[in-house]
Amino acid sequence: MRPTVLLWDIDGTLLSTGGAGRRAMERAFARYADRRDACEAFSFAGMTDRAIIRTGLETVGREATEDAIDALLAIYVEILAQEMSLAGDTRVHAGVIEALDAAARRAKCAIGLGTGNVRAGAQAKLTRVGIYERFAFGGFGCDHERRDELLRIGAARGAAMLEAPLEACRVVVIGDTPKDIAAARAIGAESLAVATGTYALAELAACAPTHSFTDLRARGALEALLG
Ligand SMILES: [Mg+2]
């Protein structure tokens, strides 16, 4: 079997935080810039944390220096931990646990994250629903501001775990937005799109992912995931 690297998006794909992630970001902007409305006008779907903060800072007329982004990220991570401890409506999406179980049983399969969340944010969200330990590695929002670049980093880490050259591996990006699909294409990976986030199946299919499903319980989804 071909060595396989799975790179899972978090928000809208593995789970929904019921708005806790957005609340944490809004509170971070309120504390840092006294502007809770900084992110009001745009969707976070498919954006990396650094890109969200850069857009928010520009929205409120602040210069988005790397130092400013780092400072806001530190506040966000602290507030996110509080929000996640309160977030009663965080839930794992349908079919995710079964898919992770099936992937864990497959030989030569590295299960990792490909997420715009910084590592500490990813840990807070996934720990809340008890699945953080299932991901041995990842490409994160703290690795790069661009989604394609953080996926490239995650793919290389997965191949290293499998002790296989990256060119010999099948890389599959599992995500819920057009940005996941585009970033997968940019690094030459397959994309498996699920309509469990804010995008409908038809909208995702229009972006020509390798595979698309309503959710991971759909007929053929596990076969598409695992090859
Ligand atoms: Mg997502």
Automatic annotation (TrEMBL):
Claim: Hydrolase is one of the keywords in the record: yes
Listed pathway(s): Organic acid metabolism; glycolate biosynthesis; glycolate from 2-phosphoglycolate: step 1/1
Enzyme class: hydrolase
Keyword Hydrolase: yes
Pfam families (UniProt xref): Hydrolase
Signal peptide: none
A molecular-function term among this protein's GO annotations: phosphoglycolate phosphatase activity
Family: Belongs to the HAD-like hydrolase superfamily. CbbY/CbbZ/Gph/YieH family.
UniProt-recorded name of the protein: phosphoglycolate phosphatase
Organism of origin: Sorangium cellulosum (strain So ce56) (Polyangium cellulosum (strain So ce56))
GN (gene name): gph1
